[in-house]
Amino acid sequence: MESAQVKPQPFSLPVDDENKATVFRPFSLAAPHMRAFHLAWLSLFACFFSTFSIPPLIAVIRQDIKLTDRDISNAGVASFLGSIFSRLAFGPICDLFGPRLSSAALSLLTVPAVLAASLVTTPLEFIFVRFLIGFCLANFVANQFWMTSMFSGCVVGVANGVAAGWANTGSGVTQLAMPLIYTWIMNTGIQSSTAWRLSFIVPAMFQAATAVLVLLYGQDQPGGQHIQRSSGRNHKQENAYEVLAHGLKNYRGWILGLTYGCSFGVELTVDNIIAQYFYYRFDLNLQVAGAVAACFGLANIFSRPAGGVLSDKMARRYGIRGRLWSLWAVLTMAGLLCFLLGRADSLSGSVLLMCAFSLFVQAASGLTFGVVPFVSKSSLGVISGMTGSGGTVGAVVTQMLLFSGSKFSKQTSISLMGLMMIVFTLPVSSLYFPQEGGMFCGPSKALPSHCDDGYHHLLG
Questions:
Q1: Domain check: are 120 and 52 in the same one?
Q2: Is residue 310 domain-resident?
Q3: Whole-angstrom distance between the N-terminal and C-terminal Cα of the chain?
Q4: pTM assigned to the model
Q5: Secondary structure of the chain: what % helix, strand, coil (to 5)?
Q6: Which of its termini does the chain have fewer beta carbons within 10 Å around, N or C?
């Protein structure tokens, strides 16, 4: 007797044959696609807010616990190191357990680290706490994994770009909000040494609240939760080792990791140093320096999504070649603007160049993740983790080489960082997809009969 056919599940948005949405409506709350989008960006926003809640208060914290310039630099590197390890591990975790549980668990587990920032009394404790807080940025992998699970190839670039872009504004909002929170607490009559410590209760509670929302209202896939979806498969599910090995052997993931190190890695470094840069270079007060620095992070609300939109539009006209050429051009322009930022001598010129630089470097991050979903379907989480980790590796390298100690001035370091971006963007030209081609080559005429399931047409 034939089994009864399962009635298709209705969706508010038009979907493809995998039930992935073929349109992207960022101001809709339609379940499950747009609800997942809003939960993903808000949860990651809270993680960025927590991670970068410390730099805008550095001028106050350093006086209280006697931090040196090297302590501050080492703490910045430590926060990125925590993110590297967690992002590498988080890819396979998302592949096996789904983005909902993975995201919520990570956010909740790192809340105590955010609260611990209010308890530090020595430079070593300060560095260790920044290391632990950095782990929450692995939530980015779940964010991008979730969007790729919910949206079809024709809109996945913009979905990834907006989800990450809106989330990244957390690094800008915290630059503006934390000095205001600190000032408000001070105005109640509490001493400075206590006020900055109490300030960290706000990002910790916000992060915990978003994690609970993800658990209560999130859905891994259009058809249900990850475990429910996996149990219906006829083929044997790959184990963690196979998923990891499959992703690590794909050279495209490594090159995209390098590219992301030159875009998002540089962005992380700037988030760490930009408030101090304007505070000391142009003798601004804490609130004004925070407001200027906030402009850099807040640009993510439209710049990174613009990168995703550009990637999808170029793909519609030119396929993967359009995605790769636009990635190279935008990131090269970002490197040039970064170089010029370090050479600017006036406050107004520096602010204008910083804003222009933020637009291009953040758009390049969106363009990078416009390519990621087409590298490998079976190891999507691993490829996302490799690329995401490349961003934090880039941040560590630039922080250690250019902003640790007093070998270079901040101005010179910023210019050198721009030159590094231009040089290390060149390997994008070596990316090649047999069914779609590359920057300089068309698709292969003789495709193997059993291509990797990641080699699928971009326009589906």
A1: yes
A2: yes
A3: 35
A4: 0.77
A5: 75, 0, 25
A6: N
Q: Which amino acid is residue 199, in one-letter code?
A: S
Give Cβ neighbours of residue 450 (< 8 Å, ≥ 6 apart).
none
Using an 8 Å Cβ cutoff, are 272 and 72 in contact?
A: no
The count of C-alpha atoms lying within 13 angstroms of the C-alpha of 381, restricted to the half-sphere facing its C-beta, is 28
Q: Measured between alpha carbons, how far is residue 233 from residues 222, 227, 236 in Å?
A: 15, 11, 7
Q: Same domain for 134 and 257?
A: no
As for how many domains the chain has, the answer is 2
Q: Do 201 and 249 belong together in one domain?
A: no
The answer to whether residues 272 and 404 belong to one domain is yes
What span, in angstroms and rounded, lies between the C-alpha atoms of 224 and 93? 18
Q: Mind listing the pLDDT tens digit for each residue in 375-427?
A: 877 777 788 778 888 888 998 899 888 887 667 888 999 999 999 999 999 99
Q: How many CB atoms lie within 10 A of CB 79?
A: 29
CATH code of the domain containing 182: 1.20.1250.20
Same domain, yes or no: 163 and 64: yes
Specify the amino acid at residue 431. Answer: L
Cβ atoms within 10 Å, residue 124: 12
Q: Are 338 and 417 in contact (CB under 8 A)?
A: yes
